[in-house]
Design a protein that fits this description.
Helix content: over 70%
Order of helices and strands: HHH
Number of strands: 0
Largest sheet: none
Radius of gyration: 30 Å
Structural class: mainly alpha
Number of helices: 3
Shape: rod-shaped
Length: 88
């Protein structure tokens, strides 16, 4: 507990307490920043994977179309819509 007298010892106690609070606040900030950054990276990876899978399915459907496969069969295998297949 800090007392409200202006002795050098009390002033030093206040300064030390302020330094401790500053270090704790800085650590909390860094921890929060790192967490937000990691969440952003994870979300970006997930979106990239999703996009890569979609592009892979489109490439597969395009090849299947060239082989003359039925659009309904292509849609069933790739999970692409008939409209997406027609636009390839």
């Amino acid at each position: 507990m800090l007392h409200c007298t202006n002795t050098p010892a009390n002033i030093e106690q206040v300064r030390e307490k302020m330094r401790t609070i500053s270090r704790e606040a800085e650590q909390n900030f860094v921890s929060t920043y790192e967490q937000i950054l990691l969440e952003g990276i994870l979300k970006g990876k997930q979106e990239g994977i999703k996009e890569g899978i979609q592009k892979g399915m489109q490439a597969t459907a395009k090849k299947m179309k060239k082989l003359g496969m039925d659009h309904n069969t292509i849609a069933s295998i790739t999970n692409l819509s008939l409209k997406e297949i027609e636009q390839l």
